[in-house]
Design goal:
It contains 16 helices and 21 strands. The chain has helices spanning about 5, 45-50, 75-90, 105-120, 140-150, 170, 195, 200-210, 225-235, 275-290, 295-300, 325-340, 360-370, 385-395, 410-420, 450-455, and strands at about 20, 30-35, 55-60, 70, 95-100, 125-130, 160-165, 180-185, 215-220, 240, 245-255, 255-260, 265-270, 310-315, 320, 345-350, 375, 405, 425-430, 435-440, 445. Helix 3 runs parallel beside helix 5 (about 140-150), helix 13 packs across helix 14 (about 385-395) and helix 15 packs across helix 16 (about 450-455).
Length: about 450
């Protein structure tokens, strides 16, 4: 497309093939948006963008360059970025039914379940989020490219469904500008990302932006969460409340769960009470999209475990790998494990990420101690922080250190847990879930908890 059609009023016309906000990713044919930022100013990197192939620039201040430049006020750049990003890939958002899911925990599970249920119904569907990209919700250029790529693989008579995770960072930074959701869903809100948002009220306000007038046609809200109840009360338009009382006669086991939903027996292969909650939200979403209750209940049987979410590895002992990386997520995980294996010793391995919310570390240490029989505190992704300092923060929340040890080497920590646990016990490895690498300093090394567990137990990979 041409620059003057992507950005009305542009000073001249050149052919544009992609949109970028990172000068390092620019290619021949890129339109570079030089966004102002809290840490870096895109206008300072126009030269690099042009050297890498950018053929035009949108900037909030004057820059010296050899390519056409469109000047724009900072508050106008994000809407223009969204419009240009969508236009250059053919407006994929106009050709799909969009579902947006936000919340502290459960986003990945719900979008995966929504897409899976739709496919079982014979509807073309895909999900976008933590499992499909480096960022939960990427910035507009990558987001619209991801939407276009997802649509390329879908076909059928029915309009495709694209279920996507919408993070609080994305909402605060307006990354989903230009998207209109058929259904927006809220799972829960608990302590996380306060290094970014500052406090829970600001965190909640960011999440609530998904449900502002005109953003969603309908809202599915988990009202057992106090923030969800508050959100349901303040959201205009159609609100579909979801609660655990929607599931009757719940029976949980290590082979799955069963419950009654809208008078129909539902058998789910997914483990844990939190997956019942996530499934109730997903069922409400797909029901709102037009599926019948009986068809949906039948489709549940086809669900497969979400990678790294209550992922069970069986071998010399039972190991559960999970992404739980927040205080509430860890408590729910360990509470579910205790309920499913009440007579087993629970050995928990976990750590906290570096360069992230430090306030949650002692809280997670206290929860692990309370809900486990034995705890090994280890490294997660320490990034630029000292792993020992992170473990010190975690251990500051522990009151009884007799059953809590530290082992900075994550592989050695998992090996120690397997040595401690008996054949009838359960080892929980939390924090990284589906992730396949570990970041220590600036070094990114392959590391997948599930593969490491299988290797150490001699189980098939």
């Amino acid at each position: 497309m041409r620059f003057d059609s992507l950005v009305p009023g542009a000073p001249s016309s050149v052919e544009v093939t992609r949109v970028d906000i990172d000068s390092r990713t620019c290619q021949p044919g890129s339109l570079f948006f030089a966004l102002p930022g809290a840490v870096a100013d895109g206008a300072d990197h126009v030269g690099e963008a042009v050297r890498n192939g950018a053929v035009a620039v949108v900037s909030w201040r004057a820059v010296e360059t050899t390519v056409p430049v469109m000047m724009m006020a900072p508050n106008e750049m994000i809407p223009a970025l969204a419009s240009a990003s969508a236009a250059v890939v053919g407006h994929p958002e106009q050709h799909a039914t969009l579902v947006g899911v936000t919340g502290t925990n459960g986003k990945t599970s719900v979008v995966t379940m929504v897409a899976s249920l739709c496919r079982s119904l014979g509807w073309p569907a895909a999900s976008i989020g933590t499992l499909t990209g480096a960022r939960t919700t990427p910035a507009a250029p990558d987001l619209f490219r991801s939407l276009a790529t997802a649509l390329d693989g879908l076909s059928g008579e029915r309009r495709p469904v694209l279920a996507m995770e919408v993070s609080s960072h994305a909402l605060d930074q307006r990354r989903v500008e230009g998207l209109h959701f058929a259904v927006g869903a809220f799972t829960n809100l608990s302590h996380d990302h306060l290094d970014y948002h500052g406090d829970m009220e600001s965190y909640f306000a960011a999440k609530a932006r998904l449900f502002e007038p005109g953003r969603c046609e309908s809202s599915v809200v988990w009202v057992d969460d106090p923030y969800g109840a508050r959100l349901a009360g303040m959201t205009s338009g159609e609100v579909i409340p979801v609660s655990r009382i929607d599931a009757g006669e719940v029976r949980l086991g290590l082979d799955g769960s069963r419950f009654v939903w809208r008078g129909i027996d539902v058998a789910s292969p997914l483990l844990g009470s939190f997956n019942v909650d996530n499934l109730l939200v997903a069922l409400a979403v797909v029901s709102r999209l037009g599926a019948s209750d009986h068809d949906l209940a039948a489709a549940v049987a086809d669900l497969t475990p979400v990678p790294g979410r209550f992922d069970v590895v069986r071998g010399t002992t039972t190991v559960i790998v999970d992404y739980a990386h927040t205080p509430d997520g860890l408590r729910r995980l360990l509470t579910d494990v205790r309920a499913l294996a009440p007579t087993s010793t629970i050995v928990t391995v976990f750590g906290c990420g570096g360069d992230r919310d430090r306030e949650k570390r002692p809280l997670m240490g206290a929860i692990a101690e309370e809900c486990s029989d034995y705890v090994i505190v280890t490294s997660d992704n320490p990034r630029s922080e000292n792993p020992d300092a992170i473990m010190d923060d975690v251990l500051s929340g522990v009151t009884n250190t007799s059953a809590v040890v530290r082992e900075p080497d994550r592989r050695a920590a998992i090996a120690r847990a397997l040595e401690v646990a008996g054949t009838d016990d359960v080892v929980v490895v939390a924090g990284k879930g589906h992730e396949t690498s570990q970041t220590i300093g600036t070094t990114v090394s392959p590391f997948d908890d599930r593969l490491v567990v299988r290797e150490l137990m001699g189980a098939p990979c």
